Amino acid sequence: MRSSFAFVLTFIVALMLEGLVFPTHLVWFKPEWTLLAILYWVIALPFKVGVGAAWFLGLLVDLLQGGVIGQHSLTYVVITAACATLYKRLRMYRRWQQSIFIFLLISINQLVGFWIDHITGDAEPTLMIFMPALVSAILWPWVFVLLRSVRRLYLIK
């Protein structure tokens, strides 16, 4: 029971961090906390966290941010499916190599999100859309170590 609670608590904390309000000039530097948590659990426990959990958490992020419903769900499902197919390979990479892969996955998230925002008329073209991916990739080694220690502490298997 403790392990299930700790597992779900990591997603709740990620959603809370996702809901933090950043100043206007720093909004581009906001990491993708929920996606980082999903990617960690997909790499660590691919049979417990998968496309269904990514879809549900994506809907929660959509509701939290007030955007187009299904935008984050779509990208989270695509990214989770890609990560789930490569989880064995990702486990063998070093943290900095994983960070590069995380950067690419979150860049896909940012591109699809930008594309949807552009269609709805809410976005202007800028290369700053990749900044959350860069910040998330830089934070990945620490997120990985933190969530791994939570997994080991609460014996989540």
Annotation keywords:
157 residues; mainly alpha; 7 helices; globular; MreD_proteobac
Brief overview, please?
Belongs to the MreD family. With 157 residues, the protein is mainly α.
Give an overview of the whole structure.
By secondary structure, the protein is mainly alpha-helical. It has one domain. It is 73% helix and 0% strand. The protein has seven helices and no strands. Helix 1 runs antiparallel to helix 2, helix 4 runs antiparallel to helix 6 and helix 6 crosses helix 7. The longest helix has 26 residues. It is globular and about 45 Å long. Involved in formation of the rod shape of the cell. May also contribute to regulation of formation of penicillin-binding proteins. Belongs to the MreD family. It holds the Pfam family MreD. This is Rod shape-determining protein MreD. Keywords: Cell inner membrane, Cell membrane, Cell shape, Membrane, Transmembrane, Transmembrane helix.
How would the blueprint of this fold be written?
Elements: H1 2-18, H2 33-44, H3 51-65, H4 71-85, H5 87-92, H6 95-120, H7 131-153
Helix pairs in contact: 1-2, 2-4, 2-7, 3-4, 4-6, 6-7
Content of β-strand: under 5%
- List how many beta strands DSSP finds: 0
Number of helices: 7
Report the span from N to C terminus: 12 Å
Largest beta-sheet characterization:
none
What is the average per-residue confidence, as pLDDT, rounded to a whole number?
93
What string, H for helix and E for strand, traces the elements in order? Answer: HHHHHHH
Radius of gyration: 15 Å
The helix content is over 70%
Number of domains: 1
Structural class based on helices, strands and sheet pairing: mainly alpha
The best one-word shape is: globular
Parts with pLDDT < 50 across at least 5 consecutive residues: none
